[in-house]
Amino acid sequence: QVQLAESGGGTVQAGDSLRLSCVASGGTFTQYAVGWFRQTPGKEREFLAHVWRSGSSTYVAESVYGRFSISRDNARNTVWLLMNNLEPEDTAVYFCYGDHRGWDIRWGQGTQVTVSS
Questions:
Q1: DSSP calls for 13-54
Q2: How far is CA 91 from the centre of its chain?
Q3: Which residue in 37, 65, 107, 108 could disulfide with 45, CB within 3.0 to 4.6 Å?
Q4: CA distances from 117 to 7, 34, 48, 53 (A)
């Protein structure tokens, strides 16, 4: 069963870009569709983006469409979330997940992104 570890968070200025990474270990990465959510205190997790197992198809939430993109490299067991033109409202903890056909869902520990105005 795969384990996920995010990295790449930090503090940036509004308008900056940031790329988050999520590396999988301990399982077969290609069995999992993967994606990203984010969460701020007192709110539910917000879905951001999803990429299917082969990497050929992606889906990005309307709320971040045009600013965020997702990609994966199965040879490197890695999924990325590229975030452009960041806004203070993007401040959150960002989580990656892995989904094996809906019956095995894995989460990373999260990485903090803070966007200052």
A1: ETT--EEEEEEEESS-GGG-EEEEEEE-TTS--EEEEEE-TT
A2: 14
A3: 37
A4: 23, 31, 22, 36
Give the C-alpha separation, 114 to 117, whole Å.
Answer: 10
β partners of residue 85? none
d(CA 116, CA 69): 21
Look up tokens 């903890």; give the residue.
Answer: 93
Measure the CA–CA gap between 35 and 32, rounded to whole angstroms. Answer: 10
Instruction: Tell me the C-alpha distance between 79 and 63, whole Å.
Output: 20
- pLDDT tens across the length of the chain (117 residues): 899 999 999 999 999 999 999 999 998 999 999 999 999 989 999 999 999 999 999 999 999 999 999 999 999 999 999 999 999 999 999 999 999 998 999 999 999 999 999
Distances (CA, A) of 26 to 2, 5, 62, 109, 112: 5, 11, 33, 16, 24
Start-to-end CA span in the chain (Å): 40
